[in-house]
Every structure is written in structure tokens, then in C-alpha cells.
Records
---
Amino acid sequence: MLGRTAGGLFWMFRYLERAENTARLIETGWRIALTRSEGAETEWESVVNTAGLRDAFLSKHDSFDSQAVINFLLRDRDTPSSVLAALGAARSNARMVRTALSSEVWEATNECWMAIKDALARPVTTRTLPEILAAIRYRTAVVRGALHGTMLRNDIFAFARLGTFIERADNTARILDVKYYVLLPSAAFVGSSMDNTQWETILRSVSAERAFRWLHAGESSPLAIADFLILDQRMPRSLAFCCTEIRDNLAMLEREYGERSPCMDLADHLCNTFMSRNIDEIFEDGLHEFLSDTLTAAARLAGQIEQDFRFNG
Amino acid sequence: MTDSKPHFDEMFISEGAPRAPYEPYHNWFAGEDIKHLRRKSAEAEAFFRRIGITFNVYGQEDADERLIPFDIVPRVISAREWSRLERGIEQRVRAINAFLHDIYHRQEILRAGRVPKELIAGNEAFLPEMIGVSPPGGVYTHIVGVDLVRTGPDEFYVLEDNARTPSGVSYMLENRETMLQMFPELFTNMKVRPVSNYPRALRRSLSASAPTCANGKPEVAVLTPGIHNSAYFEHAFLADQMGAELVESTDLRIADGRVTMRTTRGYKPVDVLYRRVDDEYLDPLTFNPESLLGVPGIMDVYRAGGITIANAPGTGIADDKALYSYMPDIVEFYTGERAILQNVPTWRCSEPDSLKYVLDNLADLVVKEVHGSGGYGMLVGPAASKRELAAFTRKLRARPANYIAQPTLALSTVPILTQKGLAPRHVDLRPFVLVSPNKIDITPGGLTRVALKKGSLVVNSSQGGGTKDTWVLGD
């Protein structure tokens, strides 16, 4: 496969994942704004921070007004993380690697882009928001379904999955990092409604509130939430799950290509940081430090993958 | 450009009386409901948009990708009509390849005085870098898309030879696919020869022209300028259908005397490059030092026989519109036969008598730039305003050798589906020809382009033309 094609697949799926994550963040913010009138602006600010777009947002807006945030995150053409820009970039990459995709995956991606672009042609109001978020969730799910149902499990698939999980790990780590203070035992007023809402926000931003409730019989604690999102191998958005997927897909490339690349050592190393510790130890060593280190390591791994497989020459 | 001259309609002899090849279609159509067909037509458009068969219009960078409109009424060609066309095309393509070889080697045709020397020597499309170079297998034009127009039951004219990098074959294939899906019953009633073999035939044909250094299964790659090119869809489509890599020039570099492509596992040699970029963007070292595109050194590899470039660099000379007027002589010179397909009478404005005639009759003629393509930079006399005619007169006087002129032909029509039912529109036809060292393979069918505006004679997609499926009937 061409190195450029591998890079195109990687980025196509990173951008699809990013569009989904941004939509999920908006959904979370929206939910809080509906249930609480006060503090909504702080919550929207936190949403923008989690998306990593604070500076970009403030260069265009003065306050974290819900309409402004929603439209910025959905429709801003200048920021690569807005849903519209991310889906546009995903589709552009898909066009570039079209020969590597099944027609089902290409068509699902193209239709996703056409449908969401149409839906986002005009500013989004609170009346149209739920419908649009549902459309984004549905359309990106169709692409993923097509990928799983129609693609060969070869190097093409591996690069697509690597992009997905690098982006997802980055996203989960950032959600936790922006909110880590509400998970710290020192700051917790256990059982207060304030914290319950905050914890729920974290779970919602990774679509895990129901799974968590189910596993923990309705009891939540900061430690349990952090454990779930960082170390739980059953949870498809946890850091441990993402790292395992990254390692497994790299191992598949190793088998397929019959040679081991430096990025595989980095991935093994990253996986070990999750396997060798429990959540108490992570809290003891410092949650924020742990998350920062993970973000740095994931970015370094992405760079090494790019280099090892000659995405850019 | 519009035309009210009487013209030949390919479907109807007279109102309600179809020509023989169209009879089964006509009977089927009579039983159909127009509204239902209009719906089908909208479905086809949605289908094209979904699979992304779009093109970008040059000079409209911000514009969305556009669809080439598709008309659901097929254009039907009988077995007898086709076999004559086939012979004519094969003869012409053979002559063009012989001409290209000659013009880059001994130049017998110039010595014999059948084509004037000045036409070659001072021509931008003639590449001195190709002198004395013999392409692998001796093939210059691996893919040709001859543009034909029809004026009567047996009168076909070649409008252009398109020996450089003809496009449109993906539309031929997708149009058929769409028709098969929408109207399967028609294909059980009529014996339509399939076109779906084209990608396999293309791969085989390109592989057969591989250089001797290729071993076993030659590595074929399609070279595209990238996703912003107007024909990108087709480049990706053909690479996909052939199972070939789709490369951009940044994927390629020269190593150990071979052209190689950057893969996830290192650099791998390419044997045959089906390039969809112009000559001048092939190699900045040879052609265009300003260009950031291209593969530095690829021409050296080519000259040393290390890669097949399809079509060969320098084939553009055969597309030159001034040279076009000599095509009947060229066919005769190399094949010893009279040309089966007619040439449109052409005035070369470089000749003073012709220039005078052209200037005197500008309002009745079509004037084209000798190097132009895509319908850009041409004057359509009957449709031009007085001001446009005056402006073109000045251009002609300033650079007469840059232009040729042709009469406006009474192009044949085929009906399209409109709100009110069938209505005749002018068409042309581009069959696709594959040339390998031992075979010329013409796909039965081609791209029919249709001027959707009533009376219009301009079929180019960039100027509002559409396409139709082309059915060549079996015996």
C-alpha cells in the first residue's frame, strides 16, 4: 500500500471519530443546559476547553453563549475540530484513498458528508439541534458499520482502526484532564448533587452513563468513574481499551509485513502503563500527571506510526 | 451555438416511425409513463451523487463538485453501423501510431512532402526529447478516445483524435451500470453488447506494453494530479477497477534507474504508469523547471527503457488541430488505404487564401485554437454577436497560424427525456480504443455526449452538456 494511502486512511478515521466526539460533547453541554439554568455558561466553556478550542473560540466570540458555542463547534469552517470541518476532512481523505475503501464505506462517508453539510447549511437553533446531533450519530455509525461489515481485515483496516483509537484515546484523556479536579478525593463532597452532576457529565461525554450505572448498580464514586474510563478493558472508550486496540492493530501490521517497527515498542510501552497499575496507584502518583503523560505518549506514538509507515515521505 | 439546418435524427425517420435499431426501445417506451420515467431520471441523479461521480469546473475553485447530467434515453447503434466505425477507427489509430513513430524517428512523411516541415518544427506539441526514443512495445497511444459526429445514416466524421489523455470512460461504464439497474427489462429485449470488460482490457493492454525489465506481473499505477483535478473521480475509478495503485507525483521518486512508489514497506518499482497529467507536468528536469509537480528524472528512466508511460510523451502532436487537416493524407501514407472515416473540411488560417475565406465567412464557421481542447477558446460563428466576431477577427489577423476553421456540421440528434416527453438534441460519440503491441481493442459503445439545450451544438460537459448510455447492438 502507498504510504500516502495509509496516512489518508488514518486521518479519515481520526476525523470521523473527532466529528463524533465533538457532537457528543455538544450533546453533554446541551443536556446540562437543559437541566440547570445557572452555571450553563461555565459548562459551555468547559465543553470548548475539552474540544481544545478555547483560543479559537475566543478569537471569534466574547462569551460562552450556548448558541455561539453550538454553532462554533458544529459549523465553523476554520477550526478543524468542528463537525462540519472534520467531516469535510474525513471525506476529502476518503476521496484520496477511495481505491482502498469498499464502495459501501465510500458511499456511507460521502452520504454522511452530503447529509450533514445540508443539515448544517444554516445556523443551528435549539429546535433543530437534537435532530442534527442524532443525524451525526447515525451517519457516522453507518460508516463504521460499513467498515466492519465490508472491509478485508488487512493493513487497510489496521490503519483505519489506528486512526480511530489514537483519536479516541486523545479525546477520553482530554475529557478526564479538563474535569480531573472533580474526581479528586480532596475536592469531593461525596454525595453532593453538584458532584453527581459533574460526574454524570464526564460519563455522558463518552456515552457511558448507562453502562456505568449497570456495572455499578447506580453507585458512583470518583475512583470508580476514573477506573472505568481509564482501566476498564470492557469499556470501548476507556484509555486501556484504546491502547489495546492500537497495540493489536500494530501487531497485525507486524504479522502482515513480517517486520517490527519502532512504533510497536512505543505501543507496548504505553499498554504496560495501564496493565501494571491500579487506579489507587494512579491517583497516588497524580491523576493530572498521568493524563498529561498519556496525552504526550499518544501524540508521540501517532508521530512514530506516521514515520514508520511513510505517510508523508 | 444553435442551428436550424435540417439534421439526421438517429431514432425517428418521421414522427412516430422509429429507425430499425430503435424499434424495440420505441415499443417499450410507448408503454411507459412519462412521470414514472422522470422519477427514474431523478433517481439516477441521486445515485450518481451518492457514488460521487462528479467533476470540478476549471476556474471555479470554490464551486461544489458538479454532476454531469445523465439522460436516460439510450443512443442505439446497429451492429452494421458499428462494424464500419470499428474498421475506420482501427485504421486511424494504426496510422496515428505509425505517424508518431515516424515523426520522432526518420520523418519520412516530411521528406515525402505530405506534411509540411514547419508544422512539426515550430510546434509546441512536438517534443524534441522524444526524438529517437522508442517506447516499450512500440506503442505511443495506449488509450485513444476518438470524437465522432454523425450527419447522416452513413456519414461519420472524426472531430478530434484525442491521442493524449482522453477522459470520460468512467461515464461510459457508470452510465451502463445505471441503465442496467434502472431498466433491466430493456436488456432482456435488446441484445446490447457489454462494456464492462473495459477495465480488465485496459489492465491487460497496459501490461502487454510493459518494459522488458518488468518481471512476471507488471506493476501498473495510475498517476493523478490529485483530488482537485476535474477528472479525479475517473482516475480513482480506473485504478480501483484495474486493481492498480493511484499515485500522485509526490509518491514517486527515481531509485536505481527505476521509477518507484513510496509504500508502507519502502519503495517499490512501477513498470507501467498510466498518467493522467499533461506532458509538461511529467518531469520538471525535462519540461517545466518551474513546476512543483512531476517526477524529477522520470524522462531519463523512460529513455533508458525503465518504464512505460501511457500515453507516451509527445503524442499531443497528433492532436494538433492544424495537423488534423492532414489526417486523410497521414492515413493513406502509412496504411496505403483511403481513410474510412471522413475528416471535417478544415481551413488552416496560416494559409493566406484560407484566412481570407475564414474572415469573409466567419459568421458561418467554427474557429478553434490549434492546441485548444474542452471547448475553451473557440468561436462558434452562427452563435456569436457582432462584437465577438469583431474581436475574433482581430485575433485571427494577429496570429493566424494559431487557428483553424471548420464549417458548422448538421450534427445528428437523439431524443432526450424532457417534461413533455421525447425531444431531439444534438450528440457526438467518443468510443474508447486500447492499443497494445499486438492488438487494437475497441469497446463496443463509448461516451455519447448530448447538448441538453434545444438547438445547441456544444456538447462539452464544461459548457452544459450531458451524457447518454451508448448501446451497440449484437448481430
---
Amino acid sequence: MKETATTRTWLTPVLGVLALGSLAVLAVLGLWVAPPDAVQGDAQRLMYVHVPTATLAYVAFGVTSLASALYLWRRTRAPRWDRLAASSAELGVVFTGLTLVLGMLWGRPVWGVYWTWDARLVSTAVLFFLYLGYLALRRVIVDPDARARRCAVAALVAFADIPIVHYSVEWWRSLHQDSTLLPGGRLDPEISGDMLVALLWGMVAFALTYAYLLVRRCRLAAMEEGLEQRVLDVAVAERRAEAAPVAAPVATPVPAPVTGGGRA
Amino acid sequence: MGRFQGGIPLQPLVAHLRSAVTVLGRYPALAGVDLDVAEGEVVLLTGPNGAGKTTLLRLLAGLAPLTGGHAEVLGHDLRQDRRAVRRHVAVLGHETFCYEDLTVRENLRFHARAAGGSVESADAAIERVGLIRSADTPHRLLSAGQRRRLALGVVATRPARLLLLDEPHAGLDAAGRVVLDDLIGAAGAEGVTVVMASHELERARPLATREVAMAGGYAASGVLDHEPRPARSRTTGALV
Amino acid sequence: MRRFAGSVLLVAGKDLRIEGRSRVTTNQVLPFAGLVLLLFAFALDPDRGLLPRVAPGLFWVAVLLAALLAVSRAFAVEAENGARDGLRLSVLDPAAVYLGKAAGVAAQLVALEAVLAAGLFVLYDVDAHQVWLLALSAGLATAGLAAAGSVYGALAAGLRVRETLLPLLLLPVVAPVMLGATRAWEAALNGVPSDAWPWVQVMAAFAVMYTALGVIAFGPLLEES
């Protein structure tokens, strides 16, 4: 069996270079090529990272749910789906956190406050806590099978909540529209031309970054599992060694009628 | 099922384990157990503490997971269908499976109905294990000995084909042991298979038709390559 | 089908009987929820007329905190004396066990809400309007809380840190229920029941969805050791 001491695969250098390059291009596009927004000024440039991180967060949680479903379904049950679900959820939480921070940084100059009870901010915050709980659950279950199964259920149950959270928060805020929103202070102002290019490029750049990190994280999870398996193999062997005295007809307080001898 | 290595036609196998591994958390409680149990046998598991006896019984009950190897119990593959096994076994473990705030009667009635039985079978079990006088005592007020009897009562409410007893004699007084031996004897008479783990060999040996020594999560002599001894007369050796 | 319903009742009846004996909900959870209502008055100056306006929200926060305790208790009971193994050895359908446990939690929550609502009307000087709407939305919210709570109770069951983990897992999930119940009660108390309908629908959808998820997912959750 081939020794793997690195999370590197044939794919990672390719994805890594592409991700890094596209992020650099995004910086140029977002900071210099795209014009400043007529209403929001330079603050609007945050959109080129904010919208992609938000989108990728949803993609990541979608991948987690799909992988969890594949794990729960008997015919496709395999540890790799559990690893994929866990890895993608971690990235999803990172992207959700980034989205929140970027949203707040954007809100300060545009809305005048870091936090406002905007529907999207609130539902993103709920999403953040939903999956923070999922990750917390992953950390406390020791047994790998039990962890995989329980967490697959948890991921699907959390995912099912997303639309309900989204619509209820949306209704809540539209029924009680606050005056804190400045004119034009929405996250989706009219965009066109260079702005659109920068935004779409941002999507591509972050998708590549997500893919790169996901591959590495999955590899790491696989290696951890391999290590655990080895530790387990050693433990099983040690456990077997305990059996040796029984195989030999020594005078023990339990003179059992040993017939089998050693391990057949 | 029903066939094994020696090719000698025998009673069908109730349990058939090969290299069975059970990992609890990260600890390999069972490290590759080979075990055959034929129908009607009373198998005694012996071995020091930590040998894996309790886990083996829990594996046979369909309660502990099968991590590696092969295991069939009552014709069901434990990897595929643990639930199907569970409904046909009765387990006497270290715990009563009962609720602290319910009385003996309420607990036994719940277990009887949950096992698909009737309320009457619970009342019969109360009588059988001699708990009539404390039938309306909540579990939390029971003495250790009464709890052991209650655990026996739970076993008695279950219509089982395989009886799994973990240190059945522990914590029972002389009268309780008579009840237990009686229960095992009755099971044997009905063709119910028994696997038990015990340290009290002088009590357990007379009941057993075969002994399997365990150590280090491994059963040294679990494979049947000869016909099991005919069941001993259980009534003579059993009673105090 | 009849046996399934019997199993549901068996489990729910068992849980309620345990509650009847141990009185944990009546003697601990209910006073706790009442205390929460009292503390809100400390936090929000009761003289400024703020309390009647925010009463629905405070009520449902109190119920939510109480529900956490009730769910926690419902699954702590199964950890006693290996009772969970007893359930796994039974012939009861896991879906029936789930529905039974959820029904037990729901029944306790309904009783708790009734007492707490009385306290709300007395303490916070709220006038009851549209009682049928209050009851309907409370019923739906309770169903949702019990359904989701029982799924997460099973998810956290048997873990070392379940007391701290359960709130983190459950609270974000039931956020829509909290929101819906509060708005529906506001609408009812303000005398504009039409405002409540979207929320009644949200809560109904939530309750149905989580009941279905629980019925499907409880088997795997009960299955593993």
C-alpha cells in the first residue's frame, strides 16, 4: 500500500494555482477595474467577496447534505461521504462567518451600523449557529460509526430548516420594515458591465478556493481515519496478546477446559 | 446455518461468529471471536474481567455493533439486521433496563407490552421472581437484591429463543439463585439456548453443557468441532 | 396500524407516568419558567408599559427555555439503568417510540404553557383576545418544539456534554417557531388575527416537517450503540 504522508494529490497543485491566480485577478478586477458605486462608493467593492462567500456557504452546506444523504442510504454508505460532509461543513461555517463579517464591514459605511436586523443578516446568523452546532456534535462523539450516523441525521435536519428560517425571517422583516435602511442600502443594487464581470469572477475564484480547500480537508480526514485504523489494528493485536495465557495450560484460578489452543 | 466444519449433522446453529470484532469507542472489546452455539446448548463463558464476556453477550443480543468479521445470530446477519435478532433474545445484564420512578409492576408491564406480550405475563413474572410484596415499590427504593430479581423478571417477560445472562448469580441471595436456576432450567426444557458469563463457576458449571474460555477479547475454544455434550439434568445440580 | 398507535400511547403513557411520579416538570421546570417571566420584569422596567407590548416574545422565550429542560429530561430518563437498551430490545417501531416521546413532551409543554399563560395575563397586565387563535398557534408551536426537540434529544442522548450541546443544537433550529408563535400571539392580542395566518402556516409546516423527519431518522439514531 502506498504511504501517504501528505494531503497533496495530483489535483491540489492545479486547483491551488488556479485558486490563488483567480483571487489575485479578482483583487485587480474588484479594486481597480470595476468603477466605484454611484451611491455606496468604494464600500460596494466588498460585494465582490461578500456575495461569493455567501453563495459558496450555501453550496458547501448543500454538499454536506448530499453527502450525508448518501451516507445514510444503505446502498451508498461509505466513510468517504462522512468525511466529505464534515469537510464541507467546516468550509461552509468559515464562509458563513466570512459573509457575516464582510456584511458587517459593509454595513458600517453604508447603513451607519455594523449590525442591523436585515432579513439576510439574521438568517445567515441562524445558519452560522445551525452548523456550528453540527460541528460541535462532531467533536463530542468518539465512535466513528456512531458519529457518522448521528451527524448525517443532524446535517439533513439542519438543512431542512434553512428554507423555513429564510422565509420566516424574510416575512418578519418585511412586516416590520425598519427605517435603518438607507436608500440604496440593499445588497443587490443595480449592477452592470465591469461590476458584473468582477462579481462573476469572484464566484469562480471562490469556487476554486472552496474546491482546493475541500480536497485538502478530505485528504486530511482520510489520513486521520487511516491513522485511527492503524491505532485500532495495534489495539486489536494487543488485545489478542492478552489471550495468550489462556491458550497455554497454566495454573490459573480458572482451570477452564481449554481445547482450542492458540488462535486458529 | 446448521452446517459446520466437522460436517457432523447437528442441531441448527443459533450463533455463528467468525473473527468477530467489536470496537467500543476506540477500544477493541472483541478482537476476533470465533464462536458457534448450537440450539439448546447452555454455554458458559469464563475468563477474567475485561476478557470481553459482556461485550460478546451484547454483540449476540444485537446491542453492540459488529465492527469486523462475520456474525450470524438466529439466522440473521448482525451487520444487516440487528433489530431482527433483538426481538428474539432476552438479556440479563448488570442493569435492570427499568425506570427509576416506576414501580416494579409498571416497569414489568411496560417491558412485557414493549416485547409484544401481555400485561398478564408481567404479573406472572412478578410472582415468578418473588417480588409480589414489593410490586408497587418504585425502582429507586428497591434494594440491590430486589433489583437483580427485577432484572430477572424483565427476562421472564420476554418470549425469547436465546437467553443471554451476564453474571446472573451476582447479587442474588440463595432464594434468588433458586429462581434463576429454575428459569435457566425451564429455558433448557423449552429448547431455548442459553449463553451466560460467570465468575461463580461452582454455581454456573452444573447448569452448562459447554464452557468457552475468553481472554483478551478472544474466545479460545468457541468453535464447535465435535458434537456438544448432551444437556445435563439441570434439576439435580442446580438447586442449592 | 392499531399496534403502532398502541406503541405510541405506551411510550407516551410511560413518560407521563414517570413525570407524574417524579414531578420534575411540575416542581422544577414550571417554577423555572415562571422565574424567567419574573426576571424579564426586572430587566425591562415594568412601569413604562413595555411589558404588555413585549409579553408574547417573553412568554415564548420562557417556553423555549422550559422546552429545552423538558426534552433533556425526556431523554435523561432513557439513560437510567440502561433503559435505552430496553427500548432497543423491544419490538416497538422506532417511529412509534419517537412519536410517543414527542407526544409526552408536547403534553407536558401544553400544561406548562397553560399555567404560564395565566401568569402572563396576571403579571404583565395582558388582556386575552382571540383565545382560539392563541390556543391554535400555541398548539402548533408546541407540536413543532416537541417534534424538533425529540429529534435533537435523541441526537445528543448519551453524550458527555449533552446538557450544553442540546441548546446549541436545538435553539437555532426552532428559531422560526419562536418567531412564528410570537408574531401570531402579537397579532391575536392586538386584535388583528389576519396578521397571524402566515405564521400559523409557518408553524404548521415546521411541525409537519420535523415530525416526518423524526419518524424517518429515529431508527438510525436509536440503532447505533
